[in-house]
Design goal:
The chain is mostly helical. The protein has helices spanning 2-11, 38-50, 57-67, 75-82, 95-98, 101-106, 110-122, 128-145, 150-161, 169-172, 186-195, 199-208, 213-228, 233-247, 256-268. The chain has one domain: ADP-ribosylglycohydrolase fold (Orthogonal Bundle). Helix 1 (2-11) runs antiparallel to helix 13 (213-228), helix 2 (38-50) packs across helix 15 and helix 11 packs across helix 13 (213-228).
Length: 269
């Protein structure tokens, strides 16, 4: 979960200023201008529901979005959380995948993980591709934390979700464009993880593709944390600083986000 939040924060400044490069190691992840976005807020919402904070995913996501209204949501989602009777709107946007990482950590079986991922998506992103993106991301995290190899993760995701994971970041990069769909984000984020040698490089590879950089890095970071067994201390401390700095701009008690991350990690890691 913290890996996804770090990816979001580190990728935040590159979303509108893409750094497309075949030398991802040159990308500086710790930048003063970084901030957390809707990816982190809604990841918190999913974690909060799992911890028992709200009755279902939809209610938790709704309450978190309403209390953090300036986190950079897409137009359709913004209309959803401002409506009097929010209903799923058949989205296949990458929002379902960016928020799902806690599901990959919290449940004992893969079948339960897939079912919960669908529930976490369907309150808004009930299009088959929206559900599929959330399930593929959660499954990759579940497999990674249960010791599966990258080859085994690749095979499972390819067989069950029909994503093309045989490409490389170098082959994707020249023609990749800003894409907020699950089908145009989740495979690329998984490929960045598969190609990486450690957590830091995974985030750099995701950002180096361009496009929706914070969400690409968020999805990649969630998987990379599970596979590599944690996140570097400097990036963890950076995330805490940015969470603390950003909370004052939202209608949430100071420290609540950090408390949820800490509680979730204590319970499930």
């Amino acid at each position: 979960m913290l890996g996804a939040i770090i990816g979001d924060i580190c990728g935040s400044i590159y979303e509108s200023h893409n750094q497309v490069t075949a030398e991802p190691e040159t990308i500086n992840l710790i930048r003063e201008q970084c901030f957390f976005t809707d990816d982190s807020v809604l990841t918190m919402a999913v974690a909060n529901k799992i911890l028992g904070g709200y009755g279902d995913y939809g209610e938790s996501i709704l309450q978190w979005a309403r209390s953090c209204p300036r986190a950079g949501y897409g137009g359709e989602f913004r209309r959803w959380f401002h409506s009097e009777n929010p209903q799923p709107y058949n989205s296949f946007g990458n929002g379902s995948a960016m928020r799902v990482s806690p599901v990959g950590w919290a449940f004992s079986s893969l079948d339960e993980t897939l079912a919960e991922a669908e529930q976490s998506a369907a309150c808004t992103h009930n299009h088959p591709e929206g559900v599929k993106g959330a399930q593929a991301t959660a499954a990759a995290i579940w497999l990674a934390r249960h010791g599966q190899s990258k080859a085994e993760i690749r095979r499972f995701i390819t067989a069950n979700f029909a994503y093309d994971l045989e490409r490389s970041c170098d082959s994707i990069r020249p023609d990749y464009r800003f894409d907020v769909t699950c089908q145009g984000t989740v495979p690329e984020a998984i490929i960045a993880f598969l190609e990486s040698k450690d957590f830091t490089q995974a985030i750099q590879l995701a950002i180096s593709l361009g496009g929706d950089s914070d969400t690409l890095a968020c999805i990649t970071g969630g998987i990379a944390e599970a596979f590599y067994g944690g996140v570097p201390q400097d990036l963890q401390e950076f995330a805490w600083q940015k969470i603390a700095a950003g909370e004052r701009w939202h209608r949430r008690p100071p420290g609540e986000m950090r408390h949820i991350v800490g509680s979730f990690r204590a319970r499930f890691l």
